[in-house]
Each structure stands twice: as structure tokens, then as C-alpha cells.
Design a protein that fits this description.
By secondary structure, the chain is α/β, with parallel strands linked by helices. Helix content is 27%, strand content 33%. The two termini are 24 Å apart.
Length: 268
């Protein structure tokens, strides 16, 4: 059982949990994720690690209440325990010095973007971050992103914070004025699809952190399969990051919608 050390809210449906997990905190790298379970019969939920504190032996998770399981997780309070926290899982981000990195995150995707942007900055890159959300409440971790970025562009659909527009509008502002050597995109699949189309047109190498449906997280069930470069890959063991220009995002979007009714109704 893993104790929740602290809990804060970004909005009514998005919570930040600091969870006691000393072994994960020590071993995790940017891009890794964990699978958590609430209750003995609970669903296994994959969550990217948004941060870690080795001294406190804790990891930070950002959870959006979407379906039954994530609502249960968000309902827990400091002092409560998560039944299982398994990880770190997945392949860590390959970080190198490339020049200028465009780090792009949408909604709760800003949380997993944070350790990746931090790592690229620590490797000596210029990091320009574009973070976006539907409105002010959906733009999370802005101050933390600013601390690891040379510049931050904030976009909101309704213009309530930063500039009015989509994440791709913010990306275009940067691409049109300076050389970008690499991009990283994390967020809703549809956002990553259009971000990848934009960088493809400009010949910018791009990584996308995928949010495919998962069950076991170890490559055994095949539920998280995606098509990358015409080949079937498993997000849990081959990813979660892939060359964004080779991902079949239409297939991914179709698979993500397979259990939408069950997620919202609670039917298992």
C-alpha cells in the first residue's frame, strides 16, 4: 500500500497527488510511468510520473477524473493509501543535446512534459515550451514549466490565459521565427496528431508520448498496441514515446474510444 502524502487540486476534476513510493522515486527517469490500482478489484490505471523527490521517497502523479477508476483515485485524500503502485514502466526519454527543443503539452499532458523538458534543459538545450488548454483552469504547472524553459508560450482556446488559439498556433509562432531542432508533444491524441502534421511539414524531428489503453503494462496483453511506421508496437514496453511522424494517430484515436461508454457509466 502506498500512502498519499499530499493532495492539491488544479481544478475540480484534476488533482496532484504526492505518493510514497521510494523505490520508484529512486529508479524513475523522464518518460517513465506507473500503473496504479485503487481497491483489490480495482482497474489498473497507467499514469506518467510528473516528478519525484528521492529524499522524501515520493513521486508526483497528476490525475484527471474521467472514468470510474480515476474518479476513485481523485477521491482519495492525504493519509489514504493507493492499493498498488507498479513501476517505473516504459522506456525513458532519450535525452541529448540537440540545440533548440520545442516542448509542447496540452491539458494534463503538461504534467508528463515537465520532467522531459527539465531533462532537455539540464542537457544544455534551449527549451521553448508551448503549453495549452481549453481555458485558464486547464493550463497546469505553468510556474514549474517556466523554471525549466528559456521561454514559455501559453495558449488557451478561449483566450482566458496567454494567447487565444490552439497548441499548434503557439508552435507555429516559434517555428516561424527561429530554428527548432526537435519537438516533444504530450497531450490528447488529437492534439498530438495535428502537432505532428505541423512539424512534419517543417522537417522537425518529433517525439510523441502516447496515451494508449493499457491493462498489464508489461507487454503481455497487447491492449496498448499501436501502429508505428507500419509495424505493431506496444506502448507499454516499446514506448510510451515514438516518432510522431510514424504513428497512426487515426487508429490510436479509434482505439481510445472503444470503452468510452463503460468508462463513464461504470460498467465493467
Amino acid at each position: 500500500m502506498n500512502k498519499i502524502l499530499s493532495k492539491t487540486y488544479f481544478s475540480e476534476r484534476v488533482a496532484r497527488l504526492e505518493v510514497e513510493a521510494p523505490l520508484v522515486a529512486r529508479a524513475r527517469r523522464p518518460g517513465n510511468f506507473v500503473i496504479v490500482r485503487v481497491g483489490e478489484g480495482g482497474e489498473r490505471v497507467p499514469l506518467t510520473i510528473a516528478g519525484a523527490d528521492e529524499r522524501r521517497g515520493s513521486i508526483t502523479l497528476v490525475v484527471q477524473a474521467v472514468g470510474v477508476s480515476t474518479r476513485k483515485l481523485c477521491a482519495l485524500e492525504a493519509g489514504d493509501h493507493i492499493t498498488d503502485v507498479v513501476g517505473p514502466l516504459g522506456r525513458a526519454t532519450h535525452v541529448e543535446r540537440v540545440g533548440t527543443v520545442l516542448a509542447c503539452g496540452g491539458g494534463v499532458g503538461i504534467a508528463p512534459l515537465l520532467p522531459i523538458a527539465t531533462a532537455f534543459k539540464e542537457a544544455g538545450n534551449r527549451v521553448v515550451s508551448v503549453i495549452a488548454g481549453r481555458g485558464r483552469e486547464q493550463v497546469i504547472l505553468e510556474e514549474e514549466i517556466r523554471r525549466c524553459s528559456d521561454e514559455v508560450v501559453v495558449m488557451t482556446d478561449d483566450g482566458s490565459l496567454g494567447r487565444a488559439g490552439l497548441v499548434t498556433d503557439g508552435m507555429s509562432l516559434v517555428i516561424d521565427r527561429e530554428r527548432v531542432d526537435m519537438a516533444v508533444v504530450v497531450g490528447p491524441a488529437v492534439m498530438m496528431k495535428f502537432a505532428a502534421a505541423l512539424t512534419r511539414r517543417h522537417g522537425i524531428r518529433t517525439l510523441a508520448s502516447l496515451n494508449a489503453l493499457m491493462v498489464d503494462g508489461t507487454g503481455m496483453c497487447g491492449a496498448c498496441r499501436v501502429t508505428v511506421g507500419g509495424r505493431t508496437r506496444f506502448t507499454c514496453v516499446d514506448g510510451p514515446e515514438f516518432d510522431a511522424h510514424e504513428v497512426d494517430f487515426d487508429e490510436l484515436l479509434s482505439r481510445l474510444g472503444a470503452f468510452r461508454d463503460e468508462e463513464t457509466s461504470g460498467i465493467k
